[in-house]
Write a structure and sequence with these properties.
The structure is a single chain. This protein is of the alpha/beta class. Helix content is about 40%, strand content about 10%. It has 15 helices and 9 strands. Strands 1-2-3-4-5-6-7-8 form an 8-stranded parallel barrel, surrounded by 5 helices. The chain is globular and about 60 Å long.
């Protein structure tokens, strides 16, 4: 049975990179005049040659987002359940080779964290764990979701890749969205970043969204870790992946996130620096290419950038985030996966959104519709 791997293998990293960096201003101007754009237009819009057109791109991105999503920003919060992990990833604070205190939340601790998030107003929660198959596995996930499903209208998960059958189980108990990041689509260097553990299997991870789609999950979220490799080339492959998924599993919705490398325990320095202007260009390019795509910005980004990006293309934002298990009330000193940049509370972010003329949305989905 065909998967994205069959599409991926038809594209060469170096050839794609050359195509991006040889884009002309004429190709960009043509892309900006189109009402419906394809992946060739996406290549033009992420190219260095598109930077002088950023203001025009931002204006079009604003109009398209407003037309499709209105003046709303969905609010969500991550809840880290565990920092146990069996992988060695050179960029992650949870990496197996980091000598840190490991913690997995108990039922009671989950209850305390949930109470704090509900107090802050959240109705959308993203459950996050490291990848530890023996302790933080499908049974743990099913139990955790069952425990909190009456507390939240929308439950998303960002955990290790699972089988189609396991994703079906998560769907049945109420999981709305599954996020999975390839980290980088550069096959030749992927192993350098992931030298040990199940995550070192590039192909298994590459085909994970296919298993999610086959399981009938309502929404699938993709992204790359910006800073590992050339962000433009990686982003093309991420868009190629999204394009394939939307055409193959058309019943599902799709989102994209933009994690930039942030300081963390034992982390490497970014190989490629992505400036704020570059991230703005990438967000606009995604929106101009695909007006139905949901676009999420996390607290990795700084206050100024997050405030200014609100009217330009994003549809959801995290707020008041803690990236360590029990970080809200149970164990605030446990190790973070990465440092957050925007540490403002959920109420402060909601106030900023309102001042921008937008509506912070705490609930836009209910399990009754599943």
């Amino acid at each position: 049975m065909n998967t994205f791997a069959s599409v991926f293998e038809k594209h060469n990293w170096d050839e794609v990179q050359t195509l991006i960096y040889s884009t002309t201003s004429k190709e960009i101007e043509l892309a900006l005049t189109k009402r419906k754009r394809d992946l060739n237009d996406f290549i033009a819009l992420i190219s260095p040659a598109a930077q002088p057109y950023l203001e025009q791109m931002a204006q079009q991105s604003h109009q398209l987002t407003k037309k499709r999503f209105g003046k709303t920003i969905q609010m969500y919060a991550p809840m880290y359940l565990s920092n146990e992990c069996q992988n060695i990833c050179t960029y992650c604070g949870f990496s197996l080779d980091n000598k840190i205190k490991r913690k997995t939340l108990t039922d009671k601790e989950i209850e305390l964290e949930v109470a704090e998030l509900k107090k802050a107003g959240f109705d959308h929660v993203l459950l996050v764990t490291g990848e530890a198959n023996y302790t933080v596995n499908i049974n743990y996930f099913l139990k955790a979701v069952a425990q909190i499903k009456n507390d939240f209208a929308n439950i998303s998960v960002e955990v290790q890749p699972l089988s189609k059958e396991e994703y079906e189980e998560l769907h049945q108990v109420g999981v709305h969205t599954v996020l999975v990041y390839q980290e980088t689509y550069h096959r030749d260097v992927y192993k350098q970043y992931h030298p040990k553990g199940k995550k070192s299997n590039f192909d298994y991870r590459l085909e994970t969204p296919d298993r999610i789609g086959k399981a009938g999950i309502h929404k699938i979220g993709l992204g790359v870790l910006l800073g590992l490799e050339d962000w433009r080339t990686d982003s093309f492959f991420n868009a190629l992946h999204l394009d394939y998924l939307q055409k193959t599993y058309w019943q599902s919705k799709y989102s994209v996130s933009f994690p930039r490398l942030r300081p963390a325990e034992g982390i490497i320095e970014p190989n490629f620096i992505m400036e704020d202007r570059d991230l703005l260009q990438l967000i606009c390019a995604y929106r101009l290419w695909n007006e139905d795509l949901e676009i999420s910005i996390s607290t990795r980004e700084n206050e100024k950038f997050r405030d200014n990006i609100i009217p330009i293309g994003v549809t959801s934002m995290s707020a008041g985030s803690k990236t360590n298990p029990g970080g809200y009330v149970v164990d605030p000193q446990s190790l973070e996966q990465f440092e957050t940049s925007d540490e403002r509370s959920a109420s402060e972010i909601a106030e900023i959104i309102t001042k921008k003329g937008y509506e912070p949305v705490w609930k836009d989905w209910d399990k009754i519709y599943m």
